[in-house]
User: Fold these one by one.
Assistant:
Number 1:
Amino acid sequence: MADRSTSPELDIFIPDFCQPRSVAVIVIGAELLAFTLVLANARSWAEGLDQLAVSSLYIQWAALVSSGLLCATRRRLVHMLNWQAASIAFLIPLLVNLLLTLMTYTIVEQGWLASGWSAHRNLGADLMRNLIITAIVSGVVLRYLYIRHEARRSVAAQHQARLDALQARIRPHFLFNSLNTIISLVRDQPEIAEEALQDLAELFRHNLRQSEQLTLFSDDVSLCKQYLALEQLRLGERLRVTWQLRDLDHYPSLKIPPLILQPLLENAVYHGIEPLIGSGTITIVGLANNESYRVIVTNPLPTAGQPGQANGHQIAIDNVRQRLLAHFGNQAELQITATPENYCVTFTLPR
């Protein structure tokens, strides 16, 4: 088993046995084990029911006490290497079964159990059988938990690599377009170009954030306003922007993946506003209901035959859709509504 390195509370393969779900799984699994063992040895239904009652009591006690000890020692286990935590998790059920078997035979000696069961007093044989069964079950369960944990880590790593790849595709595009904006200002307006470079540095610093982190929607809006301010330096009165986010202002804790809104606005500028002969307005609307949040970005389109329409939009749209899917799964949605005059993108996030 591989050693752990980071995020011990999340990276340990042994689950939290303090959780009600874990306790329920343990109780059901213990009862299935008792039923299996009795079914393999019972000679009649009457004898089987008696053995099932006694075996269930013993196995349930052993399972619950073991899980309780694992729950109590979890704080220490999360700071150990995997092989150390696995060794302790393997030994605890063995120790519990050893003590329970000795306690059971002590009770038998006092005559507190049914005579039919107390007739089996071969302590050595029963102790060896209980420990072997416990070792096999514990080993199988721990191996299953480890394999499941490694599979989840692999899926998480693939998920993160996908997010990083998607984000890496956006960053050069963003930088290239922003530099073009600044280059257009250098000769005629050097002071404004210098300020724009400072804004670009701030924008790029935000865009270098880790792709698995969500960002506050309000912060992302501020970032997008900085970006649009850069574009307005270049386009002047040709670019107008309308923000209608009053519904979402009531949810200051709303978070979205970084680089979701900005690429949509970038598309709206470069494939909507810039090819227009006159001016155009980009409208950003935020809506909320009991189930979801929606953000709608609308921009005008150039007349038929002019460049900068479908293909340019689709690259960013596919990227944003994949990022939403990677973060929220099927709970998020991205829709496109296009007419000859307008292009509208709506993304929906779960509440």
Number 2:
Amino acid sequence: MQKRNNYTQTEDFLGDDSFRQWVLQNKNTSDWESWILENPEKAKLAEEARLWILALKVEETQMLTSTVALALEKTWKKIERKETNPTRVQNPKPKTWNKKWFISAAAVLVIGLAFSWKYNNNFVSTENSRTNQELLIENSDGLVEQTNNSKNPQIITLSDGSSVLLQPKSKLSYPKFFIGNERKVYLSGEAFFEISKNRKKPFFVFANEIVTKVVGTSFRICAFENHPNVEVIVRTGKVKVHSKNQSTKTSSQEIVLLPNEAVRFVRETAKFDKITDITKDIVLKQAAKNIEQLSFDFTDIPVSQIFKTIEQAYQVEIDFPKEKLNNCHLTTSLIDQPLPEKLKIICKSLGNNTSYEINGNLIIITSEGCN
């Protein structure tokens, strides 16, 4: 673990046996995912290394083989011409490359071309004219797909610290790490999102015919394949919703939602119905979950009660040292914070070597008591 903390280049990850086993064989998964969450500044390097490793698995096609061969042949001929007809310079530098070096470079070129071909054929898409399923298939390489086949909600923690409460009979597809200038996930079913704030990297949820764009907020989306409507309900922050077949270049094409507002996309007519007060809509009111109704403002509240509120909201179990935290009270606001951030704030407030670990729907708190 200490060794990887010093990684500063993609090659560092490529040379790590444990990392390669994680990417190719799903070994050491919890170890690496926990480390990435604790070291978000290393996430981009790790993702680049992961993509390089996956590129080695690209199936060769006639087009790819010929492209690589032609590129290598041209490069080799250029080098041979330079050897036979060297250009005259006043202070010539000694050659630092040899054939062994070139073979290594050629191998990198092969991998790069293979990945480039795979990227262009699998990732580049015209999102505004594709169905959600087509987009998901086209972007499926490297995505984690989690389906909730249980009777209870499941908590999912994303690499940026965002949390998703996935309801039964629902599926979420998301990347192991978010790279680039956007964060994108794909939902089929129902989920409650709490998005980590990052104005430079907006968050997009693709759910059937609609796209929801946020920066940092909490909201619920209900988008089952066999339901007549798709709904977006906002609890905190601001959300922008538009049809997948629309461009977002003009604001008139977006529905802007504020707290306690919602929008219902009627699939039969392909039209939006904005709801400015969700308490007056019987369907939305009845469908509201605990996490949307409970308060996360705490004033001199026993920490045991705070944990109970979190258990009720997220349908999780929290294991904590009851005797050591029996007399601990907190005053804090956890509104508009993803679950990992809520736990981090609580642990920091308690101090005294307090930490947490999320293992599925079980949260383990380790502490020596409060300060």
